[in-house]
């Protein structure tokens, strides 16, 4: 069961975020077909976990969720969507379905999908520079986002993932791959939230620690769902990892030990919140987000 | 004939830029195969026109060509290289040769080429945030670069180019396509140079005007060379445009009128420098760069 506080929070802010995304895209000056392809994938739904984490951290530290916060969150969702579009390409993971609808290249063609991804990635950075935040904050966010999304993070993770299909990774290598491919961008969400909320270093370290473990839990959970779920429920092809000899937690540890690893990551994330709670921060929402990885929900 | 001042300037600074690029790439933390693919394309040579324009503008306004200037110039070359890698992909222009060597996807495979491009694009922005420039300047450069490279500029230009293969554009449409696809990044080089040199608005407007006409001349010249040159000389396939029914100046206006249009753009660029010269700026180098488009050189 997803925590009720999270459900309420999502009910209030996810539509705001969606509208903010939609309006931003509508106001872009772009080649119309390209913009259509970009908008298609951005507005195809999804849980918006990364931007919602930014909002949740702001809320927890009583930072008003204003236009600037929604800008930073929206920018992250554009960047995340680019990564999905490129990952789905025939030369990459070759997926036909995403979020229950045709993937970008299936709908618009491969050239357009490459360009839609390029456009979203570039626009994510442009959007950050258009916020009302001060230059120092903008520069910091651009640097952190590029670091997380680029060759130190996500892009290298995807490269390792593709090359890893031909070889068996050990657990340490798999963990690193996950940290880069999925963890880096979730960590950025936490850093961005912390920066927007203007919290002090000690608290930021706790939030980053929460983010690192959240990211790991997220990927183990995703691996498990790929094994256990159905296409209808996931909105994308499942059992793919196994078919493609992908390195995953279940393939390395088996189902049961993967659940244990997930529980470990969730516990460590929860632990990171303790010092914050003791300092008077209301961590119930961030604690609640960990119910995304609840076992009962999916089995 | 290329102007002697330009030849001397290139002789001095192009090796510095190349070394700066090489060292930056070497120091990146990245998946090794990915980094190899990125480095392959960045270090494959080329005239480095865009970054050299930044340096030339700094030189003209007596702004010292220091580490920060080389950083901004290097970042632009990374971004330009990304655009070449993605443009060469089979689903795009499907080129096998670039700068006299195999294109990235021919050498490293298509998935790696997509990721190498993604990595370079993202790293271009990260590099800007790592310079010693102040946050305001960094934020301004990130915004302008993203604007030039993204859906307002280059990416939309490439989209129009691909879609345009199926239709006949008129001169106005072709000019817009060129402005987006090639002109926007050359204009950014001029803006970046002007910002680094800290020149006043009036002078910046003149430099931007120079950049716009330089960009147009560049594209007309490139179109003409595709018609007139040989593969050996160009280091890439020629007569491609015609074969693929690309919209070009020669296909629209014929060879002779295309040379006239080129001369017009070069003259307008030269004219933009006049007010600067009158104000005591030594424009001989920027004037000299226009000899890139000299007719004798190539016929």
UniProtKB/TrEMBL annotation, chains A, B:
PANTHER family: FARNESYL DIPHOSPHATE SYNTHASE. It catalyses: isopentenyl diphosphate + (2E)-geranyl diphosphate = (2E,6E)-farnesyl diphosphate + diphosphate. Its cofactor is Mg(2+). It holds the Pfam family polyprenyl_synt. One of its GO terms (biological process) is terpenoid biosynthetic process. PROSITE patterns: POLYPRENYL_SYNTHASE_1, POLYPRENYL_SYNTHASE_2. Belongs to the FPP/GGPP synthase family. This is Farnesyl diphosphate synthase. Keywords: Isoprene biosynthesis, Magnesium, Metal-binding, Transferase. One of its GO terms (molecular function) is (2E,6E)-farnesyl diphosphate synthase activity. Its EC number is 2.5.1.10. The keyword Signal does not apply. The keyword Chloroplast does not apply. It comes from the Bacteria. SUPFAM superfamilies: Terpenoid synthases. It comes from Liquorilactobacillus vini DSM 20605. GO terms for cellular component: cytoplasm.
